[in-house]
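Troubleshooting log. The previous structure file for this entry was overwritten by mistake, so regenerating from the original sequence record. Sequence copied from the archived sheet and checked twice against the printout by T.R.
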Amino acid sequence: MPVFNEEKTILVAIAEVLKHEFVNQLVIVNDGSTDKSAELLKTVKNPRVKVINQTVNAGKGAALRTGFRNTIGPYVGVQDADMEYNPRDLERLLVPLDHDLADAVFGSRFISSDAHRVLYFWHSVGNKFLTLLSNMFTNLNLTDMETCYKVIRKELVDKIYLEENRFGFEPEITAKLAKMNARIYEVGISYNGRTYEEGKKIGWKDGFRAIYCIFKYGIKA
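Regenerated output below.
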């Protein structure tokens, strides 16, 4: 769980994740937060929780690299601290893995009949465009490459050299999983997106970086 200035939701997110018995460990990487996130994390006393504090904000991708190195268990999943994604959906992503059908499972916001908050039109267009472009390079037929929810076998994650520090992580790991011929599944999930006033952080610069990453890692693949 990467965290950057999420004082409003961090404790709720932790509590919701820990409700589920299938969560063996929750690694939280405080990525240089300047609000009260670090103070709130000090109040968390649970043997399943490991908190790592990074003094400088390095970005989501950098925080995930740190988190992945410190995980245990057969699978590694990503949960943002902003509660746009509901942790109860993670159990759905485990099914193809537990049945040895998949090496990685993506949670798709676009193939689900669950509740979705209605927000930005151009964000949805951008997500679909980036997924289409990614698919062209990876020869996958994903519907939601940019999704936060990705659960991957730990042994596979350990073999992937990740380079992106920010949101370029999504197209990078997708391309590298494709290069490894990983068995990838998608499962529909719910989505409760935030507005920028509510703390949403991804912006148009991240979209251009994603395009660059699709070309960069797609060509390598």
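The chain has one domain: 2-220. Archived copy saved in two places this time.
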